[in-house]
Amino acid sequence: QPGISPAADEGILDDLENVPTHQGNGMFVFDPKAHRRGPFADSVSPHIDLVSPFHQNSAVCGTCHDVSNPVFIRNGTNAEYIHNDFDTPPDTDSTDILMPVERTYSEWLHSAYNSSNGVYAPQFAGNKEGGMVVSCQDCHMPDILGQGCDPTQFPDVAMRPDLPLHDLTGGSTWLPNLLPGVFTNELGAAEAAALSNGVFRAEYMLRHAARMKAEKVGDELRVTVINETGHKLPSGYPEGRRIWINVRFYDGSDTLLEELGGYDYDTGVLNTDTTVYEIHPGIGTNLAAILNELNDDLPEPFEPGPSLHFVLNNQVYEDNRIPPRGFSNAEFEEFGGAPVGHHYDDGQYWDESYFTLPTGAVRADVQLYYQSTSKEFIEFLRDENHTDTKGQELYDLWNDNGKCPPTLMVEAVWPENFSINSIGWTVDQELGIAFNSISGYTYWIEYTDDLGASNMLWQLFLSNGFIEAIGTNSLFLDDFTPTTSGGEPAEGHRFYQIQR
Description:
Layout: H1 8-14, E1 36-38, E2 49-51, H2 59-65, E3 66-73, E4 82-83, E5 98-103, H3 104-109, E6 119-120, E7 132-133, H4 136-140, E8 143-146, E9 160-164, H5 175-182, H6 189-207, E10 210-217, E11 220-227, E12 242-250, E13 256-260, E14 263-264, E15 269-270, E16 276-277, E17 279-283, H7 285-294, E18 305-306, E19 315-319, H8 329-334, E20 350-356, E21 363-371, H9 375-384, H10 390-400, E22 407-414, E23 420-425, E24 431-436, E25 442-448, E26 459-460, E27 466-468, E28 473-478, E29 495-499
Parallel strand pairs: 1-2
Antiparallel strand pairs: 3-4, 3-5, 6-7, 8-9, 10-11, 11-20, 12-13, 12-16, 12-21, 14-15, 17-18, 17-19, 21-22, 23-24, 24-28, 25-26, 25-27, 25-29
């Protein structure tokens, strides 16, 4: 971008025959010189550094986090993408045209997070003022207090309150702990500890990526899962990645009556009699016919339908993953990310599932689980690997190391066990609300000064309206300052609601 990007960029791009026109598919340009780029003009370093606002922009993440299969292109409104002519590249690298594999960046791009104010998400915001997040970096490289290099070597390096934490945490909680045992020569104790710490950060991300509540509606239990991320829940790599609801019903004597979404940790098998959030790409009818015609000596013909053949998939058969705030069906359809086989209204960033209450049920425990990869995908990689032993080696690692056990994201109970323990003034004239809580749960406090008004809105607190419970009792304080709740109520009264 002239006037914004480093001046050296223009000359580098002029020397290229084909300059990437879109973010995605790992299309990026290396500087042929050893120049580093970063967001700050006052950096201290032993090498030449160039100020690059691009590195603070979510577009830098889109370089790799929109993935398309360039072999297949959109065919009008048909669900099945068509293949290019053999040995012929596509005419475009646009995500609007190519077969979608991952669309995490586009999901953010067309969400409420991509706005001037962003979304209130203090659980991810680091030092961001007001707990508002906008960019991918705000959540995955949160601002912290720190220095960009070793101050013993560079004593002039500034202590910054907005230093991006270079952890880039996602949701991987299983694979990192396997790596030291695989790469024994490359990874020592320090690296193993760092990988283990990364798992803890990933678990934190997952615990705060969703909220959930359970309510009785007639003869059913309604479970609502709320997406608290800036992309689909889940997002990213499609094969094997899934989130599901586990429900356990109990009678008055605490006897388990029924379990839905049960998972067998010994076999790695999930009972899919529940809601499972995932995407199922596959092979279209026309492509299956073409593949069978070209390969008439196959032991088994290709069948149209959901498939784990990454490179051959040219159609999405199902995608019920929960969209982010600001979702629009038309906009998501544009980049190939619209729901398939499931409906979400425009603006909907939650999903409701209904489970029939068994006779005698008086309570239910509900849990939301995330799993990086499934047994079915691991077995597919093993069985389809005919060139070497890597598929079997991966299967053995999976089988001998817990089978990629699911990670608990959030819990809910029915009936909700919640009560206000006390309300009163502190010695500092702050209003304190003490309530019973569940350790590890996240609570949101909102307020209004106009309860019952036709245009009444519940307001998020600017700073202290987010509590992660660490015990069975929690305390919320309102000091009525502009930096927390927005100031004192104009009419002398205030109403609060606490959500989990």
